[in-house]
Amino acid sequence: MVTTPAESTLLGSPYRADCPTRRILDRVGDRWTVLIVGVLWEGDARFSELRRRIEGISQKMLTQTLRGLERDGLVRRTVYPEVPVRVEYALTGAGRTLREPLRMLQEWAVEHLGDVSASQEAYDRVDRTPAGVTG
Amino acid sequence: MVTTPAESTLLGSPYRADCPTRRILDRVGDRWTVLIVGVLWEGDARFSELRRRIEGISQKMLTQTLRGLERDGLVRRTVYPEVPVRVEYALTGAGRTLREPLRMLQEWAVEHLGDVSASQEAYDRVDRTPAGVTG
DNA sequence: CAGAATCCTTACGGATACTG
DNA sequence: CAGTATCCGTAAGGATTCTG
User: Fold this and answer.
1) Is B87 a member of any domain?
2) Is residue B133 domain-resident?
3) SUPFAM superfamilies given for it (chains A, B) (predicted)?
4) pTM, full prediction
5) Which of A68, B35, B89, B110 is the most exposed place for a label (fewest CB within 10 A)?
6) Nearest nt to the B51 alpha carbon by C1'
């Protein structure tokens, strides 16, 4: 990775493409990361267990997301060379610290989802077609 | 939107596709929402101002993201029918409440980005090609 | 100024088949 | 069991052009 001059002022320029927040959101903002962290928070789990508990995730995305989390040092992958092989996933220390901010976000979501949904429906009820436009 | 039987147990089944957290992340987890909320937190702004301050955002994505936020009731859009027209964007009350959880996430990002980057580099340095495989 | 509309490319992600 | 490899459709998003 190239160190840009901007990095020294990153905290003051959170709107650059390479700011920390943006990089974290790239990891956390996808469909599956939060769910995986959520399950692992409750306890270590093996591949098939995660697959079962996270409804709708494909094998490909589970693998891919776990690899990403492992690469970021948020999840530890342990292979037990039995037959058949057993692989256990666990949150690392860093991974566990991610839980709190995510929980805050979830809390916000639960608290405001009703209002958001209502606002959406109200918004969708209004016709925004400019006057005089047909079809 | 269709009401599914699952909705009654949503809070107990956070791993369903339509759970609150996931819906919020679909909004907040994209590249731009956080940045827009960040700018608007500092004060109301008009379209061109947002465009200028959020580096790298295209006109299309700015419009699209603002529309989404407006639809969710998180941002208020005010049109001043002058010539040329002036449009001001502001956070709503709900929008302002989003700031805190997002700030937590940003804080986490700043605090852990170093470790994450280091972990990534370490991960990328080890060869994961199975023994005996060429190419 | 603040967008709407269009085109076009990329990459995300699902389905499937195969392996140690 | 826990993946890898491949194919493929969709959609996200950039660049460009046009408008009230």
Assistant:
1) yes
2) no
3) Winged helix' DNA-binding domain (SSF46785)
4) 0.85
5) B110
6) C2
